[in-house]
Amino acid sequence: VRLSRGSSRALICTISLRSSRKPACQQTSDGPLAYLLLAIAQGAGLLITPFGWPGLWLQLASLALFGWWSGFEAIAGIPLVLLFAVVALAELIEAAATGGRIDAGRRRRTSVGAFAGAAVGAMLGIPFPLVGHLFGALIGAFVGSVAAAIGVRGRLSDFRDLGGEAIAMAVKTSASIAVAVFAILTFMP
Question: pTM to 2 decimals?
């Protein structure tokens, strides 16, 4: 398989080892399929993050596979390394803020708050294209996560844990949204 420069068309050749004939080649247009698979993986990564599953790693792996598929033309290696650093830092902050333990019910609540806040923040950032969306989503994720953590009723001793969980979910949601925004930017010419 050889990708032609500047397009999403692949040249697929079949080579017969028993024959001395030239390879039979045909062009395929599987570029839209690759973009669709990338979009599905990004959406799945966003959806599974609130449940404590490795959504960030799924998003990063799908971007890396897409970059490999495109010959690292659509996605270069340096942005992938930077995104890897963002994802690893988000995971480390979550581990430090929560001590590696998060109650499943509270995780869902703070994650839903973070995603709802991110959606509202992104919509409020509409007057400032791209930058407003990104920073609005990041700030909204933090505000939504904290608001959800405050809304959780629990013992007084749980409030310290709730603050750590709110920070962890805000950071992971922000990182997940940043990776998804980067993936969306790969769709633009």
Answer: 0.71
